[in-house]
Amino acid sequence: MTALVAEARATTNRVARTFSIACRWLPRSVRDDVYLLYLVFRTLDDLVDEGRSEASERVAAVEAWAAGDPSARSPEVDILNDVSRRHPLPRVALAEFCAGMREDLAGVDFATEQDVDRYCYRVAGTVGLVMASVLGTSRFDRASPAAAALGMAMQRTNILRDIDEDAANGRVYIAREAIERYGGELAPGRRAALLRDQIGRADALYERGLAGVGELRRGRRAIAAAGAMYRELLRELEREGYGARAGRVVVPQGRKLRVAASAAWRA
Q1: Is the pTM for the entire model greater than 0.85?
Q2: Residue 126, Cα to own-chain centre: how many angstroms?
Q3: CA angle 210, 213, 219 (to 5 degrees)
Q4: Are 209 and 151 in contact (CB under 8 A)?
Q5: Per-residue pLDDT tens for 143-180?
Q6: What is the Cα Rg of the chain in Å?
Q7: Alpha-carbon distance 126 to 151, whole Å?
Q8: What whole-number distance in Å separates Cα of residue 154 and Cα of residue 142?
Q9: Which CATH topology does 2-266 take?
Q10: Distance from C-alpha of 37 to C-alpha of 204, rounded to nearest angstrom
Q11: Alpha helices in 16-139 (DSSP H)
């Protein structure tokens, strides 16, 4: 498992730089398990996004594990079996994550904000629940709504950050009803009102999510830093004119580190 932890850490550092920064504030007792779980989520997401032939089979294996099937086998299941010996992983959350992967495989259309919220919960709110289980909570029933909300906020941020990249790949993760309400345009320079609305929805989720950081027994600084860094992408969207130009927004590294340090200190 040592080699796998090294792979998981390297993957996080390579493809999730913001999350990698936040992980530095995690206690050593849980840091490697967080890296391993990130590898599970990232691998399945990449397999699905890339349309790999084995994507459905690998998702099915995790679905079977989540349903309690002891015969389930895959690299991701091996990690989940290992981590679950140390932490009470919520299998229902893993099943819901797989449901989100199924939506991506099927190319599901998002007609309403409720559709988007359901998707964001499945692919990211569930990740928040799993992380809360690993970090420990004073009361999971109180912490879980905030953990899910923070994950959903980050996913809505990803959607806004990647709006042009997704559109180029034929994917739209913003609700059709919202697009139509604000003029039916996703093109740069014509989506300011839409993005103001969507940023407001993401900010409301951040408020709910970050308010629950105090419920965590470990890793408060790491989660506060991660949330603050992701949220800063929304502020960068605002600074750049709400999608006035095409492409991803990027928060300068220096500002990102200052935001993370300030949030970690407050936590």
Answers
A1: yes
A2: 9
A3: 125
A4: yes
A5: 999 999 999 999 999 999 999 999 999 999 999 999 99
A6: 18
A7: 7
A8: 20
A9: Farnesyl Diphosphate Synthase (1.10.600)
A10: 27
A11: 17-23, 28-49, 55-66, 75-84, 91-106, 113-120, 126-135
